[in-house]
Design goal:
Shape: globular
Radius of gyration: 16 Å
Structural class: mainly beta
Low-confidence stretches: none
Distance between the termini: 28 Å
Number of helices: 2
Strand content: 35-45%
Number of strands: 9
Mean pLDDT: 93
Oligomer: single chain
């Protein structure tokens, strides 16, 4: 696994659908199945990239969470301005901040391997801690191919400098 790129993200406006779930009761396929046929209804798209966000509840901790820990999953795209939000969709304001950006290659089902690397190898040896106040998300760009072992996606992991 390669070293991440450290990025200072500017705030983004996103439009899409959300669902409460856990990894044990994973509704990601249903959420994206709802979103993809309607994504063209979104006006003022910045790009064709899709954003898959995990918004965790207050008190969430990556190191103590389990498959039953609930979170809100979002299927979204970025817009330059928020007007004419399609019926049933909502706006999500992604606040700026520092992120470690990793490239995940392979199937989405292999994501736990990438997450394990981030949490157990990279973070402990870095100058950063997880920032629990912001969502972790994936950018599904032009190299993302659903259910393809050659797929690539960006993993955006929120970080803050370790306190001394």
């Amino acid at each position: 696994m390669q070293e991440p790129q450290i990025v200072d993200l500017m705030p983004k406006k996103l439009i899409g659908f959300s669902k409460e779930m856990s990894y044990a009761s994973n509704l990601t396929g249903m959420l994206w199945g709802q979103f993809m046929p309607r994504r063209r209804e979104i006006q003022y798209l910045v790009s064709e990239d899709k954003f898959s966000l995990q918004v965790f509840n207050q008190g969430f901790d990556w190191y103590s969470a389990d498959e039953h820990t609930s979170f809100t999953k979002w299927a979204t795209m970025e817009v330059s301005k928020v007007e004419g939000v399609p019926d049933g969709m909502k706006q999500f304001d992604l606040v700026g901040g520092k992120y470690a950006v990793f490239t995940h290659k392979g199937l989405a089902s292999d994501f736990p391997i990438t997450l394990q690397y981030i949490l157990q190898e990279w973070l402990p040896n870095s100058e950063y801690d997880p920032d629990y106040s912001r969502p972790q998300y994936e950018v599904l760009g032009d190299k993302y191919i659903n259910q393809d072992p050659n797929s690539e996606e960006e993993i955006w992991f929120p970080i803050v400098k370790k306190s001394l």
